Amino acid sequence: MGKKQHPISGAPAVVARGRGGAAARAATAAALLVLVTACAGGGGGGDREASGPGGEKNGDGASRVADGPSRAVVTVAPEDGAGTAATSGALKVTADRGRLTTVTVKDGKGVEVKGRISADGGSWEPSHHLAGATRYKVHAVARDEEGRESAKDTSFTTLSPKNTFIGHYTPEDRSTVGVGMPVSLNFTRGITDPDAVERAITVTSVPSVPIEGHWFGNDRLDFRPEKYWAPGTKVTVKLNLDGVQGRPGVYGKQAKTISFTIGRSQVSTVDAKTKRMKVVRDGKQIKDIPITAGAPATTTYNGQMVISEKYKVTRMNGATVGFGGEYDIKDVPHAMRLSTSGTFLHGNYWASSGTFGSANVSHGCVGLSDVRGGWNKKSPAAWFYDRSILGDVVIVKNSKDKQIAPSNGLNGWNMSWAQWKK
To answer: Which part of the chain is the L,D-TPase catalytic domain (predicted)?
Structure first.
């Protein structure tokens, strides 16, 4: 026999010769098997793996989840199948003896409800209220300390409100308006939880500016920036009122997004003392128009006013604004509303031409020279009407009257920014 080194261990290997070679080769193979097993198994533990965080590890260091059911328990409220769940405060997902890793809540259209898992992984809550009369599906997964997962799938339906409210909004969707136009919402029911309602409304702009809301009473909410909008600004309003409880037992039913664009800047200043109006377009004066303002006994409000309505022709009856039967004109041309209480800037065909620029004779409105029927496009009233849009600003100064109330029309600009944000 001769000697050779074993290819693995380096031990001497016996080379069999002759008739006894087969037995020797078998013994050598058995020895090799033992050596290979010892190298791979680590002390005879080839069927065991070193344990580590979150489970065990196999021979190459990869994690393997421990056998057996997960100890994590997922709980979802409202309970599965609930049919009259509250839209706020009812939905909550929790995990016991484990941490939540996934929570998905979707409505029947596949729209996901935003929410967040707590820092300790013990709970999840939605970031906003749910819609009314809507079925939601919940899928939640939690993991225990050994890395084993437990899942729960449930569904529930929110209550169907018997009493609802909506907000009538200004301006109209996709409209182009002047730099003074606020976002104004008038609710069909008085709101006793204004914070909940305001949280459900977002107003954003491009370019971005700070925008704040202000309540006038319990049924009107306006939004505006600190200063007039910049021309060309794009404004988006999201009404997520569906399911908001605005007052006990009364829920919003509105889910809508509207947008509008700010056009060119036009700010016109009426001086009741000089009886003239200067029209400034994009920072440049384009017209100086003679006017007539309120007579000494029926003066015009001072302040910043926003054009909220336009009528080619309208009826003005003194009885509707506290002046009894003093006037009833059925065909007032080129009328633009400046206040809820009845202040207009309008065409006047019944006063003599010499009145404009020399005397104040109106019942509180601002009058511009016009013709009956409004057919003359060159009249001052027609000229101004054709070049004005909703949201344009008209400022009245030097009138012997008080400043207009911010709630009287779309006239919140008469409040300072600090007052507005209160």
So the answer is: 266-397
